[in-house]
């Protein structure tokens, strides 16, 4: 059963007097207890996709399309109703501990606040909640978990602070967890541990997850399916093993070739600016497999098989 369905999502931002398009007809879905990893270079629109689902875009954003959660379009849902859902049924793990954690508040209280926000609790309830928080810290293998509650963010390492953010996302046992770049600026050993711990917790909670990352190694550990994003578009979607081991889109191939384990062959060129307009393939200037039709026709999605699609003129023939 589809827990989340995003259909033809478009997002633009008004910057002074100019409308800057960031997402273009993005469609994806996540089934119950499934992990979909959205991968791509920094600035491709991954985090904007997550923010659209969470309805936390800034005021200068224009959004159109449909986002269905359990069959209900959350973009048409009253703000008050969605606010009650966000953080409980749909929770998030933001990407930056340095900006997402309050430096003047104990980390344990910050995790507990995800449940108590807006409510007063008595001493007995607070003691019980503190035990719950410490239990999550233990599952995430935080050292001195019984003492961690009273620490401040500045007293913790980057890996510890990232685990605190994970704790904030999972404490409500959500049905859908949006995780944004959980391995950013963390060394590979810690990244691997954090992703494995997150996967174990996801399996225990039996929740679905949108895993936003530029880290293909992390995606390979946790993802059931992968959606590849380039310049605000989904260019390939399929089972994780299939996309990573038999990629179809030239951009996906380039990302995989740039992995240290695959030879560190970095792609030439840069992703286009969101202020650019296109009447050709967006990846055309960087593509090593382009043909004569690529500079004249916008590619459409083509089904490689029932579960694997690619947006490339090599497969759809420009038709």
What does it look like?
It is a single chain. By secondary structure, the protein is α/β, with parallel strands linked by helices. It has a domain at 252-319. The protein contains twelve helices and twelve strands. Strands 6-7-8-3-9-10-12-11 form an eight-stranded mixed sheet, with helices on both faces. α7 (158-170) packs parallel to α8 (188-205). The radius of gyration is 20 Å and the shape is globular. The two termini are 32 Å apart. The mean pLDDT is 90.
**Number of H- or I-type helical stretches:** 12
Spatial extent as radius of gyration: 20 Å
Task: Look at the helices and sheets and give the structural class.
Answer: alpha/beta
Largest sheet: 8 strands, mixed
Biggest sheet, strands in spatial order?
A: 6-7-8-3-9-10-12-11
Q: What distance lies between the first and last C-alpha atoms, to the nearest angstrom?
A: 32 Å
- Name the beta content range: 15-25%
What characteristic shape results from the CA principal axes?
A: globular
Percent helix among the residues? 25-40%
Mean pLDDT: 90
Low-confidence sequence ranges: none
Overall number of strands: 12
Question: Helix and strand string, N-terminal first?
Answer: EEEHEEHEHHHHHEHEHEEHHEEH
